[in-house]
Design a protein that fits this description.
Blueprint (H helix, E strand, L loop, with lengths): L1 H20 L16 E6 L23 H13 L5 E6 L9 H12 L7 E3 L13 H7 L1 H4 L5 E4 L16 E7 L2 E8 L5 H13 L4 E6 L3 E3 L8 H4 L2 E3 L13 H7 L7 E6 L7 E7 L5 E7 L6 E8 L4 E8 L4 E2 L13 E5 L8
Parallel strand pairs: 1-2, 2-3, 6-7, 7-10, 10-12
Antiparallel strand pairs: 1-13, 4-5, 5-6, 8-9, 11-12, 13-14, 14-15, 14-16
Helix pairs in contact: 3-4
């Protein structure tokens, strides 16, 4: 009897240990990308810095870190093959405060991608001065860093001969192909001025036979600049009509639509961040040539989600997948944007061989 009791106790202990040690898999797991598909990853604002002289911990003496940013790029490298990742785009606000300490952390995070997958960054309002000087961004992510790669197209030269304003990779373009489809991808700074938009228009015309995408920091959010903190959540939203950088030279997202986006038949997507209190939003507009332009905001900021845009040519769709690289699970809901359909959805798109 004693041996039976001891045996039963032992079995119970083993079962209890297994129950404690074996992690429960998330209900919604991320499937590998199917054959014939490919994925573009869009990184949201990565402003979740901790440590010395950061916004979150201004009095800390600890070294500067960013665990979410770190998790993002580690996950991307681990999943390049499984998710068939062909490009990574960052919507900007790569730092929270424009200091060397934060840029060094950002550089280390992005270094994991360097030479492994094409990537590019839109300069956010936190990544430059009020007047549009992005010198520190250029120091850590300047054009020379990318010029060795065949997919790197080039950069706008700067405003009035001053490379610090809008130049040296602050506005850039990339060329790549996947599954027989050719793309041109522009990365434009926050509130890009007219001279930048003229340059960008020239790139889109030069590569009119390629499908075009643009990442820029500001696009969707409160239509007008909110006058109260609550307004960032409750005010009417759409393509914004206000600016943060470049002063009177800066173009609002609405002006960028009017001056650039609507004029190019090969443009089908504009990615953005900036609005962490909007979090996620998408809208569709018709360009002057009848093409649908999908505006896609994702700004999960300091939490763990990023966006996967899985192109499936066999079905003529893009699967939009929001995935939390910290929790390692699909995002079904957020506090400010409830509803799975805002984070997991599908975009119909003609993915025949040539752009129309």
């Amino acid at each position: 009897m004693m041996n039976f009791v001891n045996c039963a106790k032992r079995k119970f202990c083993l079962w209890l240990c297994a129950a404690v040690l074996v992690p429960v898999l998330p209900v919604a797991a991320l499937d590998p990308a199917p054959a014939g598909s490919f994925t573009i990853v869009v990184l949201p604002d990565t402003q979740g810095y901790r440590g010395r002289a950061t916004k979150a911990q201004p009095d800390s003496a600890e070294p500067v870190t960013n665990s979410v940013f770190d998790a993002h790029t580690r996950w991307i490298v681990e999943n390049i093959d499984a998710q068939r990742i062909v490009f990574v785009s960052h919507v900007g606000d790569i730092v929270d405060i424009d200091t060397d300490a934060q840029w060094e952390v950002a550089r280390r995070a992005m270094d994991r991608l360097h030479g492994r997958v094409p990537y590019a960054i839109s300069v956010g309002n936190h990544d430059m001065t009020q007047k549009g000087d992005s010198s520190l961004f250029q120091k850590y992510f300047g054009a020379a860093r990318f010029a060795i790669f065949s997919w790197y197209g080039g950069t706008f030269g700067g405003h009035g001969g001053d490379v610090r304003i809008s130049g040296n990779n602050a506005n850039s373009y990339q060329l790549f192909s996947a599954e027989g489809l050719d793309f041109v991808f522009l990365h434009l700074e926050c509130n890009a001025p007219d001279d930048v938009l003229e340059w960008a228009g020239g790139i889109l015309r030069r590569y009119a036979s390629r499908r075009a995408m643009i990442t820029t920091h500001m696009d969707l959010g409160p239509l007008d600049q909110p006058k109260t903190p609550e307004g960032f959540f409750k005010d009417p939203k759409g393509r914004m009509r206000w600016v943060k950088r470049h002063g009177t030279r800066g173009n609002s997202p609405q002006q960028m639509w009017e001056k650039l986006y609507q004029h190019h038949p090969n443009l089908f997507a504009v990615f953005s961040g900036d609005q962490s209190r909007t979090v996620a939003m998408n809208k569709q507009d018709k360009g002057r040539h009848g093409n649908t332009v999908h505006a896609l905001l994702s700004d999960y900021t300091s939490s763990g989600p990023l966006r996967l845009y899985r192109f499936v040519p066999a079905r003529n769709v893009i699967e939009v997948i929001t995935y939390d690289t910290t929790r390692r699970e699909l995002v079904e809901d957020t506090k400010t944007v409830p509803g799975r359909e805002n984070h997991q959805f599908t975009i119909p798109l003609d993915l025949s061989r040539r752009a129309k």
